[in-house]
Every structure is written in C-alpha cells, then in structure tokens.
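Kindly review this protein for my students:
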Amino acid sequence: MPEISRFFGIAVAMYYEDDAPARLHVYSGTYAAAIDIETGAVTGHFPPRALGLVQEWRERYQADLCDNWRRTRLRLPLRAVPPLE
C-alpha cells in the first residue's frame, strides 16, 4: 500500500492503478473508504469521527494531494503529506 500519511490510527494511501476521479484511500481497523480529493465524496464505511478528521486533513492538504494524484498518473514516487496534529 503506497501510504502517504498516518495520523490518529488512520492510514492514508493512493494507488497508481486508480482511475479518475482523483481519490485517496483511508484505513482504520476494519474500516476502509475511498474519498474524492476535490469533493470529499465517500465510498465505503468509515467511523464518523475519524471521517471528520480525514475530511479536515483533506481540505488542509488538498494541493499536496492533487500533486500526488498527478504523480500517480506519471508513475512517479509519491510524496509524504504531513499528518493532522
């Protein structure tokens, strides 16, 4: 899993094989979801409190996430994104 960040027990990854729209994947325990980088639309199941943290982080680092999405399209190494503190 190409992990780009981890905070509060939440792992965040992006996959080179994903098709548009640009999204990230989040994991916590037995929960997993995909989140659209631009809109925040969620596919999957994630605890509401943890999802709120991820959405706050996504909004704060949206430019970095979009840059990493572009890097997946070019098959370049992904850059770490700072965790939510």
About this structure: The two ends are 23 Å apart (CA to CA). The chain has a mean pLDDT of 96.
